Every structure is written in C-alpha cells, then in structure tokens.
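Quick one, probably user error.
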C-alpha cells in the first residue's frame, strides 16, 4: 500500500511538472464582453410553424436556456443575443423574386403602405421563446430594403452594379419602415429591438448577384446616408434602438480596399475619421462607436488569422472604436475541416470554430461574438442540424462548443490577459480568461491536440489561495456536451480534442 501511494504521489508530481502554466493577469483587463449570439435566418420561420411545439421548445432550450438538469449539466448554451432577420418581402414575390425558396423572407410592410403584423410568425415565435428564456438583447438585421423601395423591385442585386439597391427617393421611406418595424414588434408582440443593422455585407467581393439570397452591396457614402436617415426616423418616434454599422463581409474590408473599389473599402477610416466628411458618422445620434464585421475567409492559414486580427485591433484603437464579430460559419476555404459542405456533428468542426472564437476575442478584442445560423441543413452553417421533411432537429458538438463560452461568460464580463512561459500553440492548448459581474472567474481551455494536456493556472495577486473550479467539458466522448466533470484546484488535465470551461467559486 505504501508503495502504491508513493507511486501515485510521484505520478501527480510528474504531471504537475509537465503542466503548461498560465497566469490570469488580474491587473490587465481588456474588453467587456456584451454577448454571444446566433441568427434566426432562414430556418426559424418554418421551424416556428411546426405543429409539434415540444420540438420547438427543445430547440429553444438548446439555444437559450441557462438552466441545468438534475445532474448539474446545462440544458442549453445560454445565448445572450438573438439576431432577427427583418424581411424584405421576397417570399410574397414567389418565384419571380429570383431568390431561392428556402432563403426568401416575408415583410411586415404591404404594397399599400399598411403593415401586417401576422407575418414572419415563425420567427416572432422564437423571439418570444428567446425572451422567455432570458435572452437579454435582440438585434434586427436586414439583407435588403423592402422590395417596394429597391431600384430593381427585387431583394437581390441581380443585374446591378456595386451600389445600394435602394431608389434615391426612398432613403427616408426605408428609415421610416425600420422605425415602424421596431415600434410594431414591441407594440404588437411585446418584443423590444435593442439594435438594428440596416445593411449586410455591403463590401468586399460580394455583389449579391442572384438567384440565391437577399442582399445588396453599398458604398460607404450610401451606408452613412442610411444611418443618418434612420437616426432621424428613430428619434422622431422616441426610439432608443442603436443603429449598427456595417456588417462587413470580410475583416480586410475594414482595414483597406479588398476586392472592390475605394467607395466600399477602408470602412473604419471612412466612418470614424472626421476627415471623411461625406461618410463620418461619429456624431450621429444612436450610432455607437462600433464596427460590426464577419470573420469569414480570414481563418486560414492559422498564422494569418492571428495577424489580421492584431492589425484590426490596432486600427480600431487608433479611432476609438469597438468591434463586434457578428457572423461566421464554415466556408469553402476552410479546407482544414473539408470546407462548408456536409454537416459535421463531431469535434472536428467544433474545435475549429472554438479556435476562431479564441482568436476573435483574444487578438481582435471582440466585444460580441455571433455564429451565423442557429439551425441549418446539410452544410456547416447551423449550430443545430434540422431535417426539414421529418421536422426533426439534432444538436451537435459545434453547438456545445459555443456554449463553453456563451453559457458561462455572461454579459458584462471582462476579459483579462493570460500569460504563460510557453508560446501559444493553435494546434495545441489555447487559454482565455474572463471575470463575470458576480465576481466569478471563467477560464476556457481548448486542447486541439490528440494527446492529454496537463495545465495549471493561477490568478495574479488572488486573495483566495485555494480557489476551487468546476469543470465543464465538451468532447467526442459519450455525453460530454458541457458535462460537469467535477471540481479541481489550480491543476487539471485537458482531455484530447476537447474544450473545458473552468468556473471559479464566487468570492
């Protein structure tokens, strides 16, 4: 027995000696985290009309719940932002819309100028279920102005150039529509819209040539004009909803001119430099000093993923502007995991996305992080895989991997720097740390490798010498979807190809 105890002690000591050490630098706060989110496009409209409400509630619980089951395992990932696709009316146009059937949207506005608040009923149902489960913030985004205001009468840019698909005499009407939509959703459905994003992916190499989905490019001058008109319309109605810019399709569009003309590039300088007199919006009421952008196309090669985010962080800091990563899914250039085609329920995609989250939060100082679609089909664009014909849904490791962040890092948490003698390995261990408003610390540790990874971490100048941490792990092992795996001190061994969240005891 004595020999066994000695062997166990030596094994424990050897693990501690091999552990990669991390220090949470409590005197080096970074950004405040506002929320983690996903969007209702385009699946939530049909899902919200399914006859089986139990299936709808299961999906809502997976996405929004912050409750635990009897074993202490989270029932959902606790999203704190829900992105609502405010429709343009392509659904009412049917096949003449030049939009694929599955990506058409209804519009509250009717051709005679009246509003039909029974439209987008499936989406509105999920808005309610999100609010019922405690989701604190809602962002409404538009891929196109209503078809009644566009230059070609469509919600897609088919046959046009790289300018905004909005008639010159309809800027005010477009703004009035957004103001009435925000007012009506609260008046008719009890849903407050906290943010509105009037344009989506206006820059880069996208020209939104159909038939595919709703969308339109726009120049920076056009976007600035939309923001100013929207601000006036909201103020006239007494609205405090914030107007967000500009959902760039690629981080490189914020930094310079990327695969487009100068009118649609250099977004940060265009909107936030006072020298850009035609496009400056820094003094526009209800427009916060933030840039929203999508981190598509910039996640490979891995070294470049880090460097482009550091460039972005530096330029944003120069202009005193914050950053929200507002949309991402897997695209064809993400070849490390086989591109976007074919759904993946495993940790393969989950780890890849966790690495993107880590880089967006740690190197770009993102204050908000959102996935693209909450539910999707046979493509790596949904947190949940939906089987439309069977009206069934299945969760994925991708869903729960986002939950390793969203469920535990709550609105108002502050990220802190983490130091280590060892260099971070994007194919090994990546660690980030946060402190919630209730005083609890959160550490998210990714182990990308196929081998166990011993780690130890401390908090600089921590007054609690023996802080306890509850662990929640997501891996390919059976049942490990935010599974509570017991408390630990400042040492643990990360399972191969896993994501572990450590939640500290409160002070």
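Nope, works fine. Designed sequence:
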């Amino acid at each position: 027995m004595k020999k066994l105890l000695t062997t166990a002690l030596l094994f424990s000591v050897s693990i501690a000696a091999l552990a990669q050490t991390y220090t949470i630098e409590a005197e080096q706060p970074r950004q405040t985290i506002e929320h983690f989110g996903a969007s209702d496009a385009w699946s939530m409209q049909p899902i919200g009309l399914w006859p089986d409400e139990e299936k709808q509630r299961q999906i809502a619980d997976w996405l929004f719940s912050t409750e635990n089951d009897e074993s202490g395992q989270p029932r959902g990932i606790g999203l704190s932002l829900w992105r609502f696709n405010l429709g343009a009316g392509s659904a009412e146009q049917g096949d003449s819309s030049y939009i694929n059937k599955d990506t058409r949207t209804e519009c509250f506005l009717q051709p005679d100028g009246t509003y039909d608040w029974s439209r987008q009923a499936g989406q509105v149902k999920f808005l309610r279920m999100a609010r019922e489960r405690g989701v604190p913030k809602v962002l409404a985004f538009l891929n196109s102005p209503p078809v009644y205001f566009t230059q070609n009468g469509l919600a897609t840019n088919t046959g046009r150039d790289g300018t905004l698909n909005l008639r010159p005499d309809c800027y005010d009407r477009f703004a009035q529509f957004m103001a009435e939509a925000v007012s009506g959703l609260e008046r008719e459905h009890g849903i407050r819209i906290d943010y509105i994003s009037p344009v989506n992916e206006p820059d880069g190499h996208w020209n939104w040539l159909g038939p595919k989905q709703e969308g339109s490019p726009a120049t920076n001058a056009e976007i600035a004009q939309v923001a100013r008109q929207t601000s006036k319309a909201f103020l006239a109605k007494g609205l405090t909803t914030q107007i967000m810019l500009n959902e760039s399709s690629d981080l490189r569009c914020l930094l310079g001119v990327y695969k487009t003309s100068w009118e649609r590039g250099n977004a940060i300088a265009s909107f936030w430099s006072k020298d850009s007199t035609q496009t400056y919006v820094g003094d526009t009421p209800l427009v916060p000093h933030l840039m929203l952008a999508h981190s598509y196309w910039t996640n490979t090669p891995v070294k470049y993923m880090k460097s482009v985010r550091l460039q972005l962080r530096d330029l944003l800091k120069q202009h005193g502007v914050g950053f929200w990563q507002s949309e991402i899914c897997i695209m064809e250039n993400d070849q490390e995991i086989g591109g976007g085609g074919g759904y993946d329920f495993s940790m393969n995609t989950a780890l890849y996305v966790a690495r993107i989250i880590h880089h967006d939060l740690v190197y770009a100082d993102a204050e908000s992080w959102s996935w693209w679609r909450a539910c999707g089909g046979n493509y790596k664009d949904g947190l949940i895989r939906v089987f439309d014909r069977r009206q069934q849904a299945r969760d994925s490791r991708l869903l729960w991997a986002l939950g390793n962040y969203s469920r535990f890092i709550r609105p108002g948490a502050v990220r802190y720097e983490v130091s280590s003698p060892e260099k971070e390995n994007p194919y090994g261990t990546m660690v980030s740390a946060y402190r919630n408003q209730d005083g609890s610390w959160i550490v998210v540790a990714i182990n990308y490798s196929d081998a166990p990874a011993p780690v130890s971490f401390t908090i600089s100048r921590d007054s609690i010498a023996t802080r306890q941490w509850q662990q929640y792990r997501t891996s390919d092992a059976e049942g490990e979807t935010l599974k509570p795996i017991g408390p630990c001190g400042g040492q643990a061994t990360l399972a191969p190809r896993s994501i572990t969240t450590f939640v500290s005891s409160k002070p």
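The chain has a mean pLDDT of 93.
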